[in-house]
Amino acid sequence: MNETLPPLPIVKAGHPALRRPAAPIADPTADEWRKLAAQMVASLREAGGVGLAAPQVGVEARLVMFYVPPHRITDRPDDTVCDLTILCNPVIEPLDDEQVEGWEGCLSLPDLRGLVPRFQRIRYSGIQLDGERLVREVGGFHARVVQHECDHLDGTLYPQRMRDIRSLVYADELIAAGGLT
């Protein structure tokens, strides 16, 4: 079956799926998850984002996808380019206590940006759609995008992590003020 599946609409803040913990996936190799992942990839590409979690398309399941393009990596040696990665039941472990604030946006909060503290170094693991376990240790933007997407699985949106809600701004205003490129 090589049919192209249509993208799913991305839900916005306030949708019930974004407000509560998602259910674990019992069998990541089941066809339903491959189908959902294919539709989520189409949604991610259409929206132009770098990550998406199943609750963002209204599905309360612990599935995330993300990638790290070359222009997003930092100068940290553990911040690496990453091809599209799809994980079920991901787990994050901070590798130290260092947190850094950085600007984040979210496809479920269109046009907004906020300064969000995140752990700089993490180990993440999860089960891929072929049933294989994946474990990586990463830092910088790579660590940030994984933490952001996994927050969706716990019903958390990035403004809930912000230290100062006054840094929640519209992206075009931030760009106009020279604060984001």
Q: Which key features would you list for this structure?
A:
181 residues; alpha+beta; Peptide Deformylase; 5-stranded antiparallel beta sheet; 3-stranded antiparallel beta sheet; 3 helices; 8 strands
Shape: globular
Helix content: 10-25%
**CATH third-level topology:** Peptide Deformylase
Runs in which pLDDT lies below 50 for 5 or more consecutive residues are none
Number of helices: 3
Main pleated-sheet profile:
5 strands, antiparallel
* Euclidean distance between termini CA atoms: 42 Å
Report the order of strands and helices: HEEEEEEEHEH
Strand proportion: 25-35%
Task: Count up the domains.
Answer: 1
Rg over alpha carbons: 16 Å
Identify the CATH architecture: Alpha-Beta Complex
The name of the CATH superfamily reads Peptide deformylase
Structural class: alpha+beta
In order across it, which strands form the biggest sheet?
1-2-3-6-7
Question: What is the gist of this entry?
Answer:
This protein has helices spanning 31-47, 140-152, 171-176, and strands at residues 51-53, 63-68, 82-94, 99-106, 109-119, 121-127, 133-139, 169-170.
Describe this structure as you would to a colleague:
- The protein is 20% helix and 31% strand.
- The protein has 181 residues and is of the alpha+beta class.
- The protein has a single domain (16-176), classed as Peptide deformylase (Peptide Deformylase, Alpha-Beta Complex).
